[in-house]
Each structure stands twice: as structure tokens, then as C-alpha cells.
Design goal:
The protein is α/β, with parallel strands linked by helices. The chain has 13 helices and twelve strands. It starts with a helix and ends with a helix. The protein binds pyridoxal-5'-phosphate (PLP).
Length: about 400
């Protein structure tokens, strides 16, 4: 018996570049210590008070089916947060609670895509994007951002392929580059969406990790609230990756449609997880800033290491828990560099090529290990890059 084309095609051409990560995991399983700078997962666990609240909710009986669009108090809290952070009036009817941002990305595309519709996205991209679009039966079309523009996408490049497309997926602060889209970039994106009647899917899961500049939600731009679906998550902002809790924000009628999808797919999110999420949101911005702080610190440490050499260059970035490094001076691809670094120094980083062709000649470093070890790993990485360059 054959699987559907849709499911068989999810990974077509989309899994390249993950060998370094898989090899690192195999080395660790075989007993070789590896410094892992691969995955976007905090080195702290979910805070004990959040877990205590989850326990309280579960023991209090919140273990049955929970309200499918989300418990009203959590939808209200998310709506209030979005209103406060973006200035766009948002109510619970604009909020659908989902099991994480990944599920929200899938749901958002299911809401706007008919089979075969063109769904645009920006390269470099978060690794699941093309597969998510294919899962929703879209035809994914990538638009390259350029290293020479510090990976800020050009509106003209998007406009060039926008005719006939249904949606555009953007992500700022960006994984993998750490780039925070400027007001100019986002205004340009919004203009293309308005001109070509595109849905904008705005993945904002890193919106609490801003080191320079400011996060602008494109939903707040003129004429955009009616055509934007925002993907949010508590994975990164509250170190709750395993709890699987996120949301879609959008026009009321789209949220009503999405409720139908949730009813027939996830049937909502565990009530005790939602209660803990509400408790976590009530801890306020200082709590979120504490979760983000180690990445800001390590970014400073990395910049200090990079300042002492001239082979590896950081892509100018302003957010997220990653740094994108240009290693093209070594004349190696990101893939070969990452494999060599793993073999030689047991340090695992992601090749830029894992995130699409636009990031070739780069590597992505996740700043997700303790400061001292991170600083040493950055030093070793730079020394390795230096050892590969031909000295005159
Ligand atoms: N979007 C981006 C850009 C991500 O980097 C991630 C996870 O790394 C997600 C969405 C999905 O996160 P989650 O499903 O844990 O909310």
C-alpha cells in the first residue's frame, strides 16, 4: 500500500545538511563528548514555578478535554499581550491556542492555501518551512535574501514572484540568521502583500529575543491586520519547548475557520498546560527578559572572540538565540566546514546550507551552552577557520 503523495513529498529535498547534527548525536551516543551548538533549545529547563502551576492544574482536575480554541483566560491573556506589544486591538476572538508554533505554522497555511497554491517563503529559512508548506498541499517557492543585504529580504525580489501566489511566510527575528527585519523591510513586505493580495504569515516566535533595534509585528502596519496571521509560541520566550504551546493571531473569521481545523486535528491543547502557560504569561516581561538574557550575554562573548581575528565574520544581527557566521574566507562550504569542525574538535554547528542555498558558505551557531564553554568553543572555531586559510 502506498502513502499519499502529500505525506511522501514532505521531505523532498528538505533534509539536506542535517547529517552534522545526526553524526553529533551518534558520537554522543557512542561516548564521545561533543560541544553541541546546533539546536534552538535553552540550556535551562522550564522554571519550577511554571511546572508547579501545571501540577496544581492537573491535580485540580484540569485533565479532561479542554476548550478547543484555548481556555478563555489564556486567549484573553495572549490577546492583551499582543495588544500591548503591537498596538493592534486584539481580543480572544483573534486568538487560537495551538500545540506550539510548528502546529500554528501548519494551521495558518491550511487556512489560506488550496492544493497547489503557491506559498512564498524567504531563504535562508527555518528548517521545517518547505515541508510545512508541502504538508498543507502548497507549492513552496523560495525567495533568496542576500548576505550582502545582511539577509534583509528585498521587496522587489518578492514582488517579482508574487503574481498568482497565495501567501508569504516571513520570520523576524529570524532563524537561522538572527536578523531583525527593519521597518523599511517590513513596509516593503506589507506593500507587496497589499499589491498582490497575499496573506502574510508572520512567524514571531523569537519576539522576546531582541538585542538591537526593535521588533515590529507586520500585523501592525497599515491594512495588514486583515491579511496577516501571526504565529506565536512560548517555546523560546518561556523555555517551554516541551509543553507544546503556541498560537495563531488573525482576523476573527479566520480564527473561526481555524477552530474547525483544530476540532478535526489536535482537538486543542492539554488544559493543565494552558493553565501553566497563563501563569507563565502573568510573570510579565521581566521574567521573559531573564530567559532571553543568556543569549544576549553569549552574543557579546562571541563578538569579543570574533574581534580578535579576521577570518570568521558575523552576519550583522539583532535577535534570536543564534549567530550566523560567514566562513567563506576558508574557501569551504558551510557543510564541509561543519563536518571538519565536528571531526577535528568535536564541536557541532549547523551548516548554512541546511537552511537553504542563500546561506551557503555560512554556519549557524546556537548560543545554547553555558558561557565559558561557549566562549571556548567560539575560540576553537575561529582557530580552526584560521588553520584552513592559506597564509601568504
Ligand atoms: N518558528 C521558528 C522560526 C522556529 O525556530 C521554531 C523552533 O525552533 C518554531 C517556529 C517552532 O517552535 P515551537 O513549535 O516549539 O513553538
Amino acid at each position: 500500500m502506498q502513502a499519499s503523495q502529500r505525506i511522501s513529498n514532505i521531505l523532498v529535498g528538505g533534509s539536506d545538511g542535517w547529517e552534522v547534527f545526526m553524526r553529533a548525536r551518534q558520537m554522543i551516543a557512542a561516548g564521545t563528548p561533543v560541544t553541541e551548538l546546533t539546536i534552538g533549545e535553552h540550556d535551562i529547563r522550564t522554571a519550577a514555578p511554571i511546572l508547579q502551576d501545571m501540577h496544581r492544574a492537573a491535580m485540580g482536575g484540569h485533565t479532561g478535554y479542554a476548550s478547543v480554541p484555548g481556555i478563555p483566560a489564556l486567549r484573553d491573556a495572549v490577546a492583551a499581550r499582543v495588544t500591548a506589544r503591537t498596538g493592534v486591538p486584539t481580543t480572544r476572538d483573534n486568538v487560537l491556542i495551538t500545540p506550539g508554533g510548528q502546529s500554528a505554522l501548519f494551521a495558518a497555511h491550511m487556512a489560506v492555501i488550496d492544493p497547489g497554491d503557491i506559498a512564498l517563503y524567504i531563504d535562508p529559512y527555518y528548517a521545517t518551512y518547505p515541508g510545512t508548506l508541502r504538508s498543507a498541499s502548497a507549492k513552496p517557492v523560495a525567495i533568496n535574501a542576500h548576505a550582502s543585504d545582511a539577509f534583509q529580504p528585498r521587496a522587489a525580489d518578492i514582488a517579482a514572484v508574487a503574481a498568482g501566489a497565495k501567501s508569504l511566510l516571513v520570520n523576524s527575528p529570524n532563524n537561522p540568521t538572527g536578523v531583525v527585519y527593519s521597518a523599511k523591510t517590513l513596509e516593503g513586505i506589507a506593500q507587496v502583500c497589499r499589491d498582490h493580495d497575499l496573506w502574510l504569515i508572520s512567524d514571531e516566535v523569537y519576539d522576546t529575543q531582541i538585542w538591537e533595534g526593535a521588533h515590529i509585528s507586520p500585523r501592525s502596519l497599515e491594512g495588514m491586520a486583515e491579511r496577516t496571521l501571526v504565529v506565536g509560541s512560548m517555546s523560546k520566550s518561556h523555555a517551554m519547548t516541551g509543553s507544546r504551546i503556541g498560537w495563531v493571531i488573525g482576523p476573527e473569521e479566520m480564527i473561526a475557520n481555524l477552530l474547525n481545523l483544530s476540532t478535526h486535528t489536535t482537538y486543542g491543547v492539554a488544559g493543565f498546560v494552558q493553565e501553566a502557560a497563563l501563569f507563565a504569561l502573568q510573570q510579565g516581561e521581566a521574567f521573559e527578559a531573564d530567559i532571553a538574557e543568556p543569549f544576549r550575554r553569549r552574543r557579546d562573548l562571541a563578538h569579543a572572540v570574533l574581534a580578535g581575528q579576521n577570518v570568521v565574520n558575523a552576519v550583522p544581527s539583532g535577535g534570536a538565540m543564534y549567530m550566523m557566521l560567514d566562513i567563506s574566507a576558508t574557501k569551504l562550504s558551510g557543510d564541509r566546514f561543519a563536518n571538519g569542525l565536528l571531526d577535528t574538535h568535536h564541536i557541532a554547528v549547523m551548516p548554512g546550507e541546511s537552511f537553504g542555498g542563500a546561506a551557503a558558505g555560512h554556519i549557524r551557531v546556537a548560543m545554547t551552552i553555558e558561557d565559558g564553554a561557549f566562549q571556548r568553543a567560539m575560540g576553537t572555531l575561529c582557530a580552526y577557520a584560521d588553520s584552513l586559510t592559506v597564509k601568504s
